[in-house]
Amino acid sequence: MKSKIRYGNSVIQYTIVKSKRRKTSEIRVDETGVEIRTPITKKDSEIQEIINGKKQWIFKKQLEFKDRKKQHTTNIYKTVITYFGKDIPLKIKTRQKNEKMHYSKNQFTIHLKSEYSKKKIQKLYEKWLLEKACKYLVNRTKKLAQSTGLRPSKVIVKSLKSRWGSATNEGVINLNFQLLRSPKTVIDYVIIHELCHLKIGNHSQSFWNLVERYCPNYQTQKIWLDSQGLVIF
User: Fold this and answer.
1) 96-154, pLDDT tens digit by residue?
2) What DSSP letter does each residue of 92-129 carry, written as one string?
3) What is the pLDDT, as a whole number, of residue 69?
4) Long-range pairs for 16-22 at CB < 8 Å and ≥24 separation?
5) Which residue among 5, 89, 193, 198 is least packed, with the fewest CB closer than 10 Å?
6) Whole-prediction pTM value?
7) Whether the Cβ atoms of residue 175 and residue 154 lie closer than 8 Å to each other
8) Residue 224 burial by CB count (10 A; 0-12/13-18/19+): exposed, middle or buried?
């Protein structure tokens, strides 16, 4: 379903895609347009509220793609990507000898052998992020498990299509490597949320009381995930 919203003197057109399998909402902005993917149960009024809250970000990203087209004659491009809840400058260098990504002095740099490729950039970024997430999320879960006394049998960091994390009956906690794009306080909330599921498997009041015991401001972090958390690279 296609729709549009006004931002200043401009009009942002977007497509809504609803899915029975999806549990969270996300916004995609690229050179082809704007798409919001939501659970099938999400009301149109709620979708409109999401778009209203992010229209400035959407408009900014659309301008970036327009500027990028103008830069096609050079081999250096600039944009931003998210890391620990912050937009970090990203410099993209094309026609380089090797393909790699590194982070230094609050800036990301990606080297590409060929011309600018969004898919290649995303692949390099996600590979780098997965490596960092495996170390950070496992270590952080171990520390929070010690402080809460809720110990998982195993911690697995991987790509999860529609969840930030999950806990199995066998005590295994799965965490989405994309969590590293969230603030550290939000990451802690997600980990504590899953640790609490090791003791209480549902979302009853007893469960939320347990979450609040170890994460008193969990509602603030939950709100962040419901709003900012749907923005993806």
Assistant:
1) 888 899 998 899 999 988 877 788 888 899 999 999 999 999 999 999 999 999 999 99
2) EE-S-SS-EEEEETTEEEEE-SSS--HHHHHHHHHHHH
3) 59
4) 16/47, 18/42, 21/162, 22/162
5) 89
6) 0.67
7) no
8) middle
Give residues with Cβ within 8 angstroms of 198, minimum separation 6. 150, 151, 152, 167, 171, 173
Q: Which two tokens stand for residue 124?
A: 């390099």
Q: Kindly report, residue by residue over 26-83, the tens digit of the pLDDT.
A: 888 876 778 888 888 888 888 788 878 887 888 887 777 776 655 544 466 778 888 9
The two three-digit tokens of residue 60, written as one number: 């900014």
Domains of the chain: 1-64 (no CATH), 127-230 (3.30.2010.10)
Which residues does residue 192 pair with via DSSP β-bridges, in sequence order?
Answer: none
Alpha helices in 94-227 (DSSP H): 118-148, 184-197, 205-214, 218-227
